[in-house]
Structures are given as C-alpha cells and as structure tokens.
Amino acid sequence: MLTLFLRSFIVIGILLAAGPAFTQAYPTRPVTVIVPYAPGGSVDAVARIVAAKMSERLGQNVLIENVAGAGGVVGTQKASQAAPNGYTLLFSVESTMAIAKLVSPSIVQYDSQRDFQPVTLIGTSPLVLVGKKSLAAANTDELLKLMRANPGKLNYATSGVGTSLHVAGEMINLEGKVKMVHVPYRVGAQMVTDLMGDQIDLAMLPLVMALPNYRNGNIKAFGTTEPTRSPVAPDIPSLTEHPDLKGVNVTVWFGFFAPAKIDMAIVTRLHEAIAAAIQEPDVRSKLTETGLRVLGSNPTEFTAFLAREIEKFGTIVRAANIKAE
Questions:
Q1: pLDDT band at residue 22 under the 50/70/90 scheme
Q2: CATH number of the CATH domain containing 274
Q3: Do 43 and 95 fall into the same domain?
Q4: pLDDT tens-digit profile of 117-132?
Q5: What are the b/e assignments for 186-216, b being 16+ CB within 10 Å?
Q6: Which residues are CB-neighbours of 253 under 8 A, at least 6 positions away?
Q7: Does 286 share its domain with 310?
Q8: Residue 26 belongs to a domain
Q9: Cα 210 to Cα 287: distance, rounded to the nearest angstrom
Q10: Is the pLDDT of residue 14 over 60?
C-alpha cells in the first residue's frame, strides 16, 4: 500500500513539474483560427494577413476556418465551446463580441466576457458617414441643418440591424438630435451602388469600402466616427469636430480571442507571436491598406477595452431601442 502511494505521489510530482514544459512546447500541432464570417470579407482578409506570419512565429501552421452564419454568431458560438488548449482561436470584431448580445439577448448564447479570453487587439478603423453626390450639403454642418429642416425624410443605409454601422447611425441621430431613417441592406456593396444611383441619401460604410469611391468623386464623405482623423484618410474630418457630434465614437476593431480558462502562459505565447507578426513591415503595410490603425494591445489592455466597448454600445442600444430579434 505504501509503495503504491509513493508511486502515485511521484507520478503526480512528475506531471506537475512537467506542466510548464508542456506549455513552453506549445504549439506541437497546427492552430485553427475560426473566422465567423464568409471568405473574402474584410474580417477574413485581416485574419489571413496576420495568420501567415503567426505560422512563422509559432513554428506551426495557423489555419483559417470560416464558420459563417447569423451575423457571426454561429462561428463565435462554436469557438466558445472549443477546448481551452490554444489550438482553437477566434478572430472577431465589435459587432459579434460587443454588440450582438445586446441586440439579440435571446439568440446569442455566448457571453464574450465570460466565455472568451482576449489575446490581442490587432487594430481599429473608423466608419464613415457618406452621401450621394446630389445631396444638398457639402459638409457636416450643412448636413445637420438639412436633416433638421427635413426630419425623417433622409435615409441612411447599413449592412444590417444591430451592426456597428447601425449603432453609429443611431448615435448620430441621438447626438445630433436629428432623425435619419435606417435602411438595412443584406449586401454591403449594394449600398455604394445605390448611393451612386441616387437610390439612398446616406450610408455608414467601413473606411476601406468608402475610400475608393470618395477618392473618385462618386460619393461625398462627411466624417469618420472615431474621435481623431484616420491616418489613412486625414482629409476626411472626424464627426466629433462638429460641436453637436462630440460624443460620436464608434470604432470597428479586429482581435484574437481564446476560449476562457486557457492557460495564461499559452495566451502570452500567442500574444507575443501575434504582436511580433503585425510589426513586420509587409504585414503592417497590408493592414494599413485595409484602413486599420495597427495597435497590438496585450491581453490585459484588450480585456479592459472590451469591457468599455460593451458598456458604450449598451448605452446606445438602450437609448435607441435597437433590437435585432
């Protein structure tokens, strides 16, 4: 009996001692990154840019698995149920991680703060309030005056109810004390087509989608939704530069998450690999081309950032009574 006890004690001691070694050896096989959106979109593009360099840093292939459905909810739910061993990660954005639960509480079963461990915030990008060329306003001040003179008569398009684009539009309504009418679209590219065809008045667009047609003179750009001008488009003012819109602050962001309860040593290993990857000149250049302000925030910073985003979006969602159910 004593011999059996001693043997058991020795085995447990060996396993405990070996724990850090197992962590240091991570990863010993390919890592899968779930992207909860279809291939070819902006989230997928950013994930693939970073994953290629992550593979080099980790010494293992980093594979992208697109699991689209329900505006990102299906893939995110799948990632939340993965084993917390560092071999399944999530690459996601604000709509899925900070807004979805607020606007669809009975549909969204995961909790981004409870079920995930933030790893690295890759970067942020503003949205842009754009308009058709024939709109009788040349700047934000003229646009607000036009809206106030015609309450409920100007519409704005977004990629759907409960998205960050929708929230940004409603924040402008609340802050500016105006009444734009929301027109949700299923296909983002169609918004630009309809703007150029005078089918809609305004739209909230990601910066990367707005820039080409703004530069070509096909649409007007009134302002971005971040507090400061984007280094990618410094000629477009921030909406906050207008005194009536100082509270407008909606940022599109991209980041890596791991399932909750993961060993923090693995989180540190992942963050170091990701942070180093996005500092590579070619990666940084590609990310900047997508309109991103590259950050690389660490797990602690990202966790605090996520909490602030959920609180901020919650205030807007409740005030505007946004529901996607």
A1: very low
A2: 3.40.190.150
A3: yes
A4: 999 999 999 999 999 9
A5: eebeebbebbeeeebbbbbbbbbbbbebbee
A6: 93, 94, 121, 122, 123, 124, 125, 309
A7: yes
A8: no
A9: 16
A10: no
Do you know the residue count of the chain?
325
Question: Where a domain ends, among 217, 245, 273?
Answer: 245
Domain that holds residue 237: 126-245
Q: Is the dihedral of CA 54, 58, 61, 65 positive or negative?
A: negative
Domain total of the chain: 2
To the question of pTM greater than 0.85 for the whole model, the response is yes
Could you give phi then psi for residue 219, rounded to 5 degrees? -140, 165
- Average of per-residue pLDDT values in the chain: 92
Q: Which of 219, 245, 271 is the last residue of a domain?
A: 245
Query: Amino acid letter at 149?
Result: A
Tell me, letter by letter, the H, E, C secondary structure of 240-308: HHCHHHCCCCCEEEEEEEEECCCCHHHHHHHHHHHHHHCCCHHHHHHHHHCCCEEEEECHHHHHHHHHH
Residues 119 and 95 in one domain: yes
- Co-location of 165 and 227 in the same domain: yes
pLDDT of residue 121: 98
pLDDT given at position 186: 80
pLDDT in tens, 48-92: 999 999 999 999 999 999 999 988 999 999 999 999 999 999 999
